Amino acid sequence: MVPVLALLAGAVLGLFLDPTVPVALQPYLPIAVVAALDAVFGGIRAKLDGVFDDKQFVVSFVGNVLIAALIVYLGDQLGVGAQLSTGVVVVLGVRIFGNAAAIRRRLFRA
Amino acid sequence: MANGSMSRVTRVVPSAGPLLGWLRSRRLASLILLALLGFTLAVEFKSLGTDEDLSAARLEDLVRIQSDLEAREQRLRREIAELEESQRQLATGAQRHAAALEEATRQADELGILAGTLPARGPGLSLTFIAGGTPIGSATILDAVQELRGAGAEAMQISGRGGASVRIVASTYFLGGDDGGLVVDGHVLGAPYTIMVIGDPTTMRTALSIPGGVVESVQGDGGNVIVEEREVVDVTALREPPELEHARPVS
């Protein structure tokens, strides 16, 4: 419950403060968000499996975000930023779907 | 694994405060990260919403949008050029209008002075006719007026003792009235008469004083004409412009 509240609080803050994304961060933020979503879904699955660990969540969250940003940065430097971003999103999307399927199985036994 | 960590926490808590704080801070860190995620999501949603989704548009769409914008730019540039051209035309037209208006105003002023519908001011003469033995006749006044016209008089008015001033224009007539008076354009004037005339003073004075001229003939009758040169003569009497019934301008 508390994590959901934290998420909502952040969203409300973002809506009300309405900051502009710095230009330097603009290419990385969407990928970072997808990577963070992957970590969150992994965390939910672990919670349902009873193996959730805060340290692991924090490390995977930060690590996912950093690696995603690093890949986009490398792709930009190599001139294949768009393709690499697509690849990262696909891979993370597959992982998110896998986690979502596991969560669904846990919740609905189906 | 979670159970294990939980039991470790319950085991360690009483003895080690810092460890609990550390664990709590790890819990807090994950919450902060989640809040950050929500924050970022909201910001991204808003920024994409306000960015007209250009960054999410496909290449073909972007190309189309760009060509649309270029076509629009060209159209607007053409429009600017056309508007500038018409502005230039209007400006020159306005200049021509202003010049024409100025010319027309000048002409109207001149004609107004000639026709006696506008008051005039300028250097000129003041003539006072003082009768001697015989009254000053209308012929004498007419002679004087003709002489003044010949000498380049531009505006004249005549006033007498009993009546108002009368503007002398091309169609002005002079009649001898009853008991030696003078009728000018229907106004009855009594002697002495004063003519105010605008023109070159020297020329007009010379024209009046030639041998056998107006001054001499009046003096021959025992009267006198007092000719004063003035820097400023005001011809203020006005004449109603005649209503033209038959004549129409040809243009």
Task: Tell me, rounded to a whole number, the average pLDDT of chain B.
Answer: 82
Low-confidence stretches of chain B: 1-15
Poorly predicted regions of chain A are none
**How much helix is in the residues of chain A?**
over 70%
How would you explain this protein's 3D organization?
- The complex is a heterodimer of chains A (110) and B (251).
- With 110 residues, chain A is mainly alpha-helical.
- Chain A is built from four helices and no strands.
- Chain A has helices at 2-17, 28-49, 54-78, 81-108.
- The longest helix of chain A is centred in the last third of the chain and has 28 residues, at 81-108.
- Chain B contains six helices and eight strands.
- A five-stranded antiparallel β-sheet of chain B has the order 3-2-7-1-8, covered by helices on one side. In chain B, strands 4-5-6 form a three-stranded antiparallel β-sheet, covered by helices on one side.
- In chain B, a hairpin with a 6-residue loop joins strand 2 and strand 3 (166-168).
- Residues 1-15 of chain B have low confidence and may be disordered.
Keyword list:
heterodimer; A: 110 residues; mainly alpha; 0% strand; B: 251 residues; alpha+beta; 5-stranded antiparallel sheet; 3-stranded antiparallel sheet; 6 helices; disordered N terminus
Q: TL;DR?
A:
The complex is a heterodimer of chains A (110) and B (251). Helix content of chain A is 83%, strand content 0%.
